[in-house]
Amino acid sequence: MKKVLIADVDKCTGCRICELVCSLSKQGECNPAKSYIRIMKNYDMDISIPTLAVQCDPACKKCVEFCPTKCLRFVKVPEAAVLRKGLKIGSIPAPLFRGQPA
Length: 102
Fold this sequence. Notes:
alpha+beta; Alpha-Beta Plaits; 3-stranded antiparallel beta sheet; 3-stranded mixed beta sheet; globular
């Protein structure tokens, strides 16, 4: 069953460790531009928002494993829908992007 990344943006510090771990795991080099997870920074609201490439394999979970603030987790789609209704405003399903890693 398909899984969705849930990100607690209140906990995300924007450290981008998830990007480095993903690129190293999937592309063989520490290059955030080649990562399947990207951190978008909203400077006006002072929040960091994790986004996922559609090529991401949720079974990998390296980004979740190495996140120092534990703001990331993968859940099944039906659970994500239930969580989304009950979660505080700061917790969101991570948006997807279609860009190819460089």
